[in-house]
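Risk register update: the risk of archive-format incompatibility is retired. Evidence:
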Amino acid sequence: MLLGHEIKAGSILVIDDEPFNVDILVDILESDGFSHVIGVTDPVEGLQLYKDKDFDLVLLDINMPVLDGFQVMDEFSLAIKTIHPPILILTALKDRDIRLKALASSARDFLEKPFDGEEIICRVSNLLEMHLMQKLFEKYSNSLEVSLRERTRKIEETQAEILDCLAYAAEYRDMDTANHTIRVGWYSRIIAEKYGFKGDELDLIQQAAPMHDIGKIGVSDVILLKPGKLDKDEFEKIKLHAEIGAEILSKSNARVMKIARIIALTHHEKWNGKGYPKGLAGLKIPIQGRIVAIADVFDALSMERPYKKAWPMDKTLNLLFEEAGEHFDPQLVDIFMEVLPAILEIKDKYEDKLISPEE
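Archived output:
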């Protein structure tokens, strides 16, 4: 509920082509304590004032030259306002059709001429209170929205930091580098944007992609750190990291965690259906998994590791071409080649600092 002085501080615009009517209305309102009243006799001037200032109520005559009240209301509706003020029609007309037309044109109430001072104060006060309460509610809602956005941003930042730490932990056990996860995140974002991802979809895939190998946390060090080639049994065990990762990430309902789970589970699937763990093929593999598959393999081949040298770039790209339609989604291979300059910029920016077993 608003206090009387708050209502009387509302800004009022009076538009009537009769100077006498304007003077009467302004005098009545100001005498009762309304402190922000502007009266004009030219509807064009009134329209400009309406566009330039933030009024809380308009008292508007219907019968005026140049622009009548209906035309003025039509122009009001085109003005850019967060909340349009209510309109109180001033009229000597008792025609029912005129009144209905005015109400349909955004009028909220009527004042009949000749004016009754007490009636003016009551109707003006009621409409002002309604509008000012609406403005307060809008301000409060906007404040809540800003606060909610800020809290959401902080939660998302914390979530991203946790994801980074988990991804780093998985790579650390594999004697890899944290930069691998950073690069895969960026590569995935670049490919996804060219594919058609937009807005927060890009942020989500960039945050989720580094979690692709989180399941390595559940793989024995004997297998994970073996310097030589894995035997068949060992390879079957390391393949379990896809499902282990999906299980780890299934404990959260956050969007980024849901996408990370999809990626962890499907980034080793192959376009030809010969991947793991589910043997999915073609478009049955989620797009996020197909994107990260290319990003992960490119990074693994093109960067040096403690157990291998980096492949030359031409050899790496040739493999991607050869595996288009076999290991990789052929459309995504084409996209990868289109965005290769951006990919190489990220590769150079986040060069490896290898983690040795002694560190």
